[in-house]
Amino acid sequence: MKNVYLALILFFACICHARATHIVGGEFELRYKGVRSDYTLTLNLYFDEINGDPGAEDPVVQAAIFSKRTNQLIDVYTLSKVSQQQVSYTNPVCTDTRLRTRQIKYGTDLFLNPATYRDPEGYYVVWERCCRNRVITNIVEPGSAGNSFYMEFPAVVAADGQSFLNSSPNFVVPKGDYACVNTPFVFDFGATDPDGDELRYSLVTPISGHSSRNFPNPSALNPPLYRPAPYPSVLWAEGISLSNVIPGPVPLRANPQTGQLTFTPNKLGLYVFSVRCEEFRAGRKIGEVRRDFQLMVIDCPVNQGPAVRMKVPNQPGYYLESQLITITDPNQRCLDLLITDVNRQENVKLTVRPLNFGADLATVAPAGGVIQGPGDTLRAKICLSTCVESPGPYWVEIIATDAGCPAPKSDTLRVQFNVPVLANATPDIVTSLAGNAGFVRDGEMLNFAVTGVDPDKDQIAIEAAGRGFKLEDLGMSFAGGTGTGTLTAPFAWKPNCDRVRSGVAYVVDFYVVDKRCPNSTKRDVVTVRLEFQERENGQPEVSTDLAGNAAGIKPGQTIRFNVLGTDADKDPITVRAVGRGFDMAAAGMQFESGKTGIGRLTAPFAWSPDCATLEALGNYYVIDFILQDNRCAANRADTVTVTIDLTDYEAVPGVFEPYNVFTPDGDAINPAFMMPNLPPDNCKDQFQRIEVYNRWGKVVFQSTRRDFAWTGEGYPVGIYYYLIKYRNSVYKGSVSLLR
């Protein structure tokens, strides 16, 4: 009976999979991850959403790796579905409802063990799956033809025993375009190689393999079936061969260097083909990837393309390419363009291509628009920049490109013309600083204005640069900016006391640049010399109220003192603290660094370290308290240094002498068992608990308090045993209970 059920299951599985036509094509990709021998194996599968059976979409792919030399099965890897996307058209407007393709990516990470993958003849990975589209034109029984996705890759160990690192070629994602009968067609089908290896392309007959309508996915059988090479090829239809896979006056061809496909078809249909991309390093073939794909040839509507014309100033008719136009008005440097297209609702883009001058000297506006159809005209202007430095003649091409289907078409008009050269005066720059020299004292600010003027009222920009220094480093600020004709910008200098020096001349150059032309050399410069002059300054003083500026402290204690700052000149002062070799905040020290005052300040310091601080940071701490005034003098700061010694409590000196007898008889003499002389706690050892046992080992008393007291109430006279537990020590003994 079991055999009957199995037969029925296989029968219905065959009926289901017999309709599973879906494969457009695809290819494997092996990418080195940059670590050891780790790789990512990917299968890019192209699924036909129009003619394909949705039930044929596989959740996983079983990829088998074989040795090329022995055809022995080496490994099988499960590739899971990782992503999917629609294959787009070059021009989305040209979408055809008969053609819609989806890319499904399957992948997994794998480790190619150097001990296994070292055969110099290399390896191949394959996955067999049926079936192709039933409407394919150029092969026999396409709905029953399988597909073998196939890739070869080299050993991961070279002949000299060193690692051989390699990633396979990576094909570009193809477009979902169609070709038009009796029309030349170009299709980008190239690949890139992450390692820079040489790639060579050729057309090959697609592989059919061993899958079939009855067994569409051999790797999904139980047990799975993995067959080595060689693999059967598809059968070409009558009149079709590798030399005319897509028939026509120009049959399908693959550029050996780029992989670009070209052909001119003369028959409608859906055509399958395969491109082999071989990978060479140092002249030796190391691998190959095969990609199957299909292209549809349809009867397309005719796209007539746009037409671009130009009006000649002060002349009837339109410009002829043999003419030389001379523009006489220096302020009128534009020519009128008229663009037409017989197609309705056609989107047209305009571009200019200068032939004997810079691309930035000619513009077209607007850059495109929609033409409604016959009788409608898109109007635009082409203008030559005022930056031209000679009258010409200038050659330029105006290109109008439509978005027609199946492929855009364009028209090009080549124009030759002369234009007058406009005079361009050099701008001028000045400052409001008398004699372009000045000084500033500490605590003051120097201000002046910088003005740029252009006689032609062109757009100008002003900027500044210090000679050998950055303005902001010295406390100088200058925003500069742009304007038209005249521009004024403020300069300010409040000296940065940490960087300026008295008596040193700081030279700043201010520039004005004419922005009429992008690469203009029209500019002017003015130079100013600036000095900082130091005033007399009484040095501020800093101290603490900590005796001797040194202290010792133990974990759990707190040290407090005040930092005192004074300045005889009553200048603004600021105090900060710096720990030598440690972070004060991380150590838990409390101090307001940056506290300010006028002539006087008090800043409190507090620290309560614990054992964790001692263990993490150690015993000795040196802190510098630095007081500064706001002058730029050499004696503007003072420092006081405080040292703090953090030490642990002393360890237990030898063995202590606990009580050995107690008499709870009501006379107040030895009424309880106590140990007032327990060893003190320190960071290395701390009291945890005491336990008292009777002679049978039963606990009769326990406590976690150092000041414990056991009265023995309810227990008979006799000898009892105690255990005192510290974190790292244990003390044992006995005590007698008497009454």
How is this structure best described in words?
The protein is mainly beta. The chain has 5 domains: 297 residues, Immunoglobulins (Immunoglobulin-like, Sandwich), CATH 2.60.40; 113 residues, Immunoglobulins (Immunoglobulin-like, Sandwich), CATH 2.60.40; 106 residues, Immunoglobulin-like (Sandwich); 106 residues, Immunoglobulins (Immunoglobulin-like), CATH 2.60.40.10; 77 residues, Immunoglobulin-like (Sandwich). The strands form 10 sheets. Strands 1, 2, 3, 4, 5, 6, 7, 9, 12, 15 and 16 form an 11-stranded mixed sheet that branches. Strands 18-25-24-20-22 form a 5-stranded mixed sheet, with no helix packed on it. Strand 33 and strand 34 form a beta hairpin. The N terminus is likely disordered.
